[in-house]
Amino acid sequence: MAKQNSYLGVDLSPDSIKIVELREEKGKPQLVTYGYTEAKSDVLRGDFINNKNLTSTLLKEVSDRSKVTTNLVAAALPIASVFSTVIKLSNLQKRELDNRPKIKAMLAEEVKKIIPRPLEEMVFDFNLIPTEEIEKAGAGQKIEAVRYLITAAPNEAVKDYVDIFKQANFNLNSLDIEPFALVRSLIGPDKSLIMIVDIGENRTTLSIINLTMPVLNRTIQVGSSVVTKSIADNLRITVAEAENYKLDLGIMMAQERMESYPRVVEDALSPIVTEIKYLLKSYYDQTGREKMLDKIILTGGGSLLGGFLDKYLAKALDIRTYLGDPWARVVYPEELAPVLREIGPRFSVALGLAMREIL
Predict the structure, then answer these.
(1) Span 81-155 CATH architecture
(2) How confident is the model over 342-351, as pLDDT tens digits?
(3) Which of 7, 84, 229, 319 is most open to solvent, judged by the fewest CB atoms within 10 Å of its CB?
(4) Where are the domains of the chain?
(5) pTM score, two decimals?
């Protein structure tokens, strides 16, 4: 039997590189290998894309160390660096929705009116936002309003990614945006209204997902490092000691039977809570509450705060909240289960990227 191709998902987040290689096995994604590297200096930290030579070197190092077997790569642009909007087209027949060249030309005319740069300086893509009306319509039936999620990135940003992977001897097979990768790894076919909250070291990205499509996205420059700094400042300890405090937080809370975070942690988390409320209100204002949020899924390294963040947000927001499991639909050796559970939230984007060509 011919060997199945495998695909490497690469997450170039601001402060680390995460990679996951998957191959298809009996219709399911199977783990081949994974790897992780942090910025090796404060000079590089937060600036992976602009340090192409060093980034490509780090990427090659972590790939060699992880014994990657493919050169086919899927990567993602962070939503903060992508122009995104929703554009509505009217009175289209359902059969016309499959005519991508025609739809792209129609959308391009609308995009030109609102995009901050000339369209020829951007790479733009579009995705149909599914609705029950579209799903039920016959081929010749006219649909009053069809909405598309538009994403556009400057040509030079795309070129930066191509250059990095080329220097590391990889073929950039696809360039996605992060929320689409998170939908693949954390949501799958679930069509309910969901919010994904991805808490990294220096930023938090929030995405509202409806019928498996990210329809509203927002990034704030607040992440787990803010919690660390807040603890260090308030307790008058070093940043390293504050990191240890965070690691021990869950044990301390369990021993003292605490039902909420210490005040210093709650204060640091308040901007994220406020942003969740703001994004949800914005969505409801646009849709008229035609569908209510079913749940929040947490991911990213910052979501592991004391093993309690899901419960804290569920109580603060009165919304069901869960820590996402990106490995749930991946086949992997049972002996790796403990470590994969521990690192899972950090690998959600890379996993979702590797799944792109398999699922």
Answers:
(1) 2-Layer Sandwich (3.30)
(2) 899 999 999 9
(3) 229
(4) 6-78+158-187+326-355, 81-155, 219-321
(5) 0.90
